[in-house]
Write a structure and sequence with these properties.
Bound molecules: 3-methyl-2-oxobutanoic acid, sodium ion
Cofactor: Mg(2+)
Largest sheet: 8 strands, parallel, barrel
Structural class: alpha/beta
Number of helices: 12
Protein name: 3-methyl-2-oxobutanoate hydroxymethyltransferase
CATH class of the largest domain: Alpha Beta
CATH superfamily of the largest domain: Phosphoenolpyruvate-binding domains
Subunit structure: Homodecamer; pentamer of dimers.
Subcellular location: Cytoplasm
Number of domains: 2
Order of helices and strands: HEHEHHEHEHEHHEHEEHHH
Strand order of the largest sheet: 1-2-3-4-5-6-7-8
CATH topology of the largest domain: TIM Barrel
Family: Belongs to the PanB family.
Amino acid sequence: KQALTTPRLKAMKSQGKPIAMLTAYDYPSAMLAEEAGVDAILVGDSLGNVVLGYDTTVPVKLEDMIYHTRAVVRGAPGTMVVTDMPFATYRLGPEATLRNAARLMQEGGAHAVKLEGGAELVDEIRLLASAGIPVLGHIGLTPQMVHQIGGYKVQGKSSEQAERLLQDAKALEQAGAFGIVLELVTEELAAAVTHSIGIPTIGIGAGRGCDGQVLVYHDLLKYGSGIRDKKMVKSYANIGDTVREAIAQYVDEVKTKAFPEEKHAFTLKQDSAEASNE
Ligand code: KIV
Ligand code: NA
C-alpha cells in the first residue's frame, strides 16, 4: 500500500471522496489502523489525555511526540502520518518552529505536522511549507488553549467568532497549509468554511459538511476515557469492557489455580523441541 501524500489528500476533496483519519500512538494501534484502511494517521497530542493520563494536552513534550511517532511509523509504514506539534513548540518565531517541526520529521519519521491556531501563524506555516514540511491547520476548539478559553466549548457560535474562523481558514490556506482540522464548531460554520477554501477540512465535532473526519482512537473503541464531548464521538466497539473482563478472568484463574494448566507447562519428559516456547 502506498502512503497518501498531501496532494492526493487535496485531490480527494475535489473528487468528493471523504477522508477518514484516526489518531494512533503506538505500534499496535497504528498497525490496526493501517490494516483497517484509514487514509491518514494523526499522532495527536491527545496522547497526553488518553495514553499518558494528563488532564490536558499542555504537559506533552516534543520528545513524547517523537517517541510515539517512531512507534506509529513502524506500525503503519504504508500510511501518511501527521504529528501534532505540542504546546509551546511553535509560536516561537518561524526558525524555532522549523527546528522543532524538523525534529518530528527527521527523528520521528512524521510526513507532516499539525499546529493549532489561525492567521497569527502564517509566517511560521509559510516557512515550514517552503522547507518541505506539510502543515495541517487546526482551528475552532484548540485544546492547547484550554486554560485561556476556560473549557471545551463549541466555537464559532457568534457571528464575529464565525467570521474570524472563516478568515483564519483562508489565511491558513494562503500560507500553504494542506488541510485544516475543524474541532467543535457548529455544523453550519464548518460547512461554510469547507465551501470557502480549496484545501480539505477534517472535522471532529464539526458536523456533516466537512471533507473528512478524525476521531481519537480511544474514543472510537471506548478504550479508557477521553476528554472530548460524548455527543461528537461515536464508539464502534467497547474495548475497555472487553479488556477489563479478560484481565479479571485472568486474575480469577490465577487465584483459583485454573491457570496455568498442564498444556501451558514445560516438563522434563518432553523433548527439547517441545520444551522450547513454540
Ligand atoms: O490530538 C488530537 O487527537 C487532535 C484531534 C482530535 C484533531 O488534535
Ligand atoms: Na491535538
